[in-house]
Structure formats: C-alpha cells, structure tokens
Sequence to fold (304 residues):
Amino acid sequence: MSTTLFARDAKRFRRIDIHHHYFPSNLEKEKSNADVGWRTPAENLPWSLDISLSAMDAMNVDLAILSFPALSSGFISKDNRHTARTRNEFAASICHAHPSRFGFFATLPFLDDVEGICSLHEIAYTFDELHANGVSISSSYGEGVVATYIGDKRYDPIWAELNKRQAVVFLHGSQIPSSTPYPHPCLGLPITEVPNETFKAAAHLVVTGNRRKFPDVRIILAHLGGSTPFLASRVAVLSNHMGCILTPEEILDDFKTFYYETALSAYEPNLAAIEKFVQHDHILFGTDFPGTFTRLTAFYAFRI
Fold:
C-alpha cells in the first residue's frame, strides 16, 4: 500500500491532496490554536467528513490522504500509545467507508517509545491490518533542550523498519517555540517556526547520513520543505567546515531525494524555484486543509 501513491494507482486520479488533516471530535482545536497563534477558519470547525468532501469537490481533488499532526511532545505512556491507536483506527474507518476518496498516513506514538518497541508495533499494525499509505512524523520529538531530531541514532530501528517496507513518510515541522519569542501576534509559530523546523529535520537526515543509510524510505516534506530549497545549498557549502563527511555534491543529491508538497507554498516564484531543484515527479500537491482554506488556496489549486 505505501508505494501506490507514487506509482500505478496514482494515475487513476486527477488530483491527490497529500496534506489533508482530520480533527477528531475530542480534539480541543481552538485551544491548541491559541497556544501557537493560529486561527483555523471558523467554517472548518468542528471538522467533519462532509466539510472535507465539500472542499475536495471545490478543488477538484479526487483523493485526500488524511493525517494528524504527529505526537511530538509528551511522555512514553499507555495513554500516548492509546491515542495513536485510536486515531489510526478512526482514520482507517473513514478510508474503509470511502475507499475512492481517502487514504491515510498513520500516527505513531511518541517516537522515543523505541525501547518498548511500541512504535514498531504500531507501524506493523497500521500497514498490515489498517493498510495505511504511510506514516506521519514530526521534525523532532520532545521539548526544549531535550528535543531530538529524527535523524538521531536512537530512531534507527524505526527507520530500518520503514526502509524495509519501502514506506512513505510524511514529515511535518513541529510547532515548537524557538529560543526567542515570535516577533508579532500575526507571525505565530506556524509562520516563523514550522518551515524552519522542517528544514532542520531534513538537513539533519542528510548530514547524519540517515538519508543514505535508509534510501528506500520515501520522505515527503510538508509545505514545499519550508526553507529547505533555499538553504540546502548553504548546508552543502558550509557543513564540511563543521565536520560533515559528505561532499557538497552528495549533500545536494540527498536533498533532491525528498518529495516536496505544495501546501501553503504554491506561489509561482516558489514553484519555479522547486522545479529547478528537483525532478517534477518529486513535487506533490497538498492543501493543509482544514487548517487553512482560503480563496488563495483554491486559486492555486487550479493552477497546479
């Protein structure tokens, strides 16, 4: 199931929305929005399947891949594992009821839950029993000085399992504060931090050699990779001076193995830049619905 998004089955659809969230009814979305300085469009809350289907029809989207922002903070606990399982079974039930309109990326438990192999169990369950199209992961796990980016060796067993399955991974930047506050209420974490967190995670995968160690994992970077297309060359030029053993050419080659989706990034200069950077089949369509849906979103949906 995990590879069909990039192969034969994708040809059956006019447009696939690779970045489409679902919000369970027990999620206090308004509260979590307030924590990061974001306002989900009021008409999209409380979220329902009909709201997504209506938006998909408006944008000529045939298939949406549902995902829930990864569990990037918290503790290794039964509650955390239960939350991941419940969300995955909820998403799978939607796909079962509407197989021609939805697929889903599975949510993993807090990724540090490696020692108890809970994340590995959830990977097996969601692929083998729920038929997930891939998994959704965060750029880092934990908070503050103990936050760990996803290329860390502690996560190697997870990457090894995903590599063995030739899995699709949807990588979304964490909504975590930087060491300085965001500069203005109109420039909250989704604007100032998430794009850079995506870049930091992608760059971490590259310079640690993780991307080369697990080459069969197909990684999609949310929001056109955030700042990745514009900073990849900076990594290539400077990281050797800080101990990276890869050549600049190898670094750029590894950045080009990622897939880049267009949510909140489908501005013509951005698209022109990414088309110069990666092959066209590595550029995917995404909307970030229902977190956002504006006239601009719909406008660019018809231009891609």
Remarks:
- The mean pLDDT is 87.
- The radius of gyration is 18 Å.
- Strands lie at 16-21, 63-67, 102-107, 134-138, 140-141, 148-149, 168-172, 218-221, 259-261, 283-284.
- The domain at 16-299 is CATH 3.20.20.140 (TIM Barrel).
